[in-house]
């Protein structure tokens, strides 16, 4: 039976799914809802998570009226560790065990090609979801997600990079730079999983209207060129070990330039989860789903271009329906 939507002011019980290699969101996101056990969290497998959690005053932890109550990971031992660290009371043996026990589910894994099957049981049960970035990484899976939306399923997806604290003022006002003409947004790791971070940090600067994407690099050293209808060009150099790319953006306009840096991961992740809870309570999306579709088309196009020898791929080639 479909849940009443939106969920209103009820006490929210939320389940979380994880993990994938190198992605510790079940630890961090659960802690942002529930608080955490410092002793256990300091020993968690992702050293960066306790570093930014421990900087936060206790009053900034938690989201009123919402808790992570159930956790599933492919390895039960991982889920048990998340439970200890992030005060999640229930560890389940299968994702489906959450159905009937939770009001919403967070799919906290970052391999887009796995998301349709991970999310399918909850979509079929009418349980609203947050799907970690990227929502999908193939045209077929994008179409599946859009079909679910067209059928009235309730879910959102985003990268935390949309909420980089030092970028937010420029989304509303970068007039001192004149007409925005060039953006460079480097990134690390893999295009298929981390390219969406770079894309989504840039997207609010320009809005919908991206036209083409070209990847003249390799799997290890991607070099992305994107064009926008406004005339602005975007470059995304993305290499596996380029960790210094985080929080670094170059903006060049007709009248000025700006280098923006940021290191407040907690702010970005917490705002992402705050917005998910607001969506559950009100039904109001943080940003239009059409933006998510355009972003995923760029993820798909960047891979397709690289596989096809650096061909310029038009976003209009990639069909969501």
List the helices and strands and how they pair.
Elements: E1 12-18, H1 25-34, H2 38-41, H3 48-53, E2 66-73, H4 76-86, E3 90-91, E4 104-107, H5 115-124, E5 129-132, H6 139-150, E6 155-158, H7 168-172, E7 180-184, E8 187-188, H8 191-206, E9 210-215, E10 221-228, E11 233-239, E12 248-253, E13 257-261, H9 265-282, H10 289-307, E14 313-314
Parallel strand pairs: 1-2, 1-4, 2-3, 4-5, 5-6, 7-11, 8-11
Antiparallel strand pairs: 7-12, 9-10, 9-14, 10-11, 12-13
Structure explained in plain terms:
By secondary structure, the protein is an alpha/beta fold. The chain has 2 domains: 171 residues, NAD(P)-binding Rossmann-like Domain (Rossmann fold); 121 residues, 2-Layer Sandwich (Dihydrodipicolinate Reductase, domain 2), CATH 3.30.360. The protein has 10 helices and 14 strands. The strands form 2 sheets. Strands 7, 8, 9, 10, 11, 12, 13 and 14 form an 8-stranded mixed β-sheet that branches. Strands 3-2-1-4-5-6 form a 6-stranded parallel β-sheet, with helices on both faces. α1 runs parallel beside α4 and α8 crosses α10. The longest helix is centred in the C-terminal third of the chain and has 19 residues. The protein is globular and about 55 Å long. The chain starts with 11 loop residues before the first strand and ends in a 7-residue tail after the last strand. The mean pLDDT is 96.
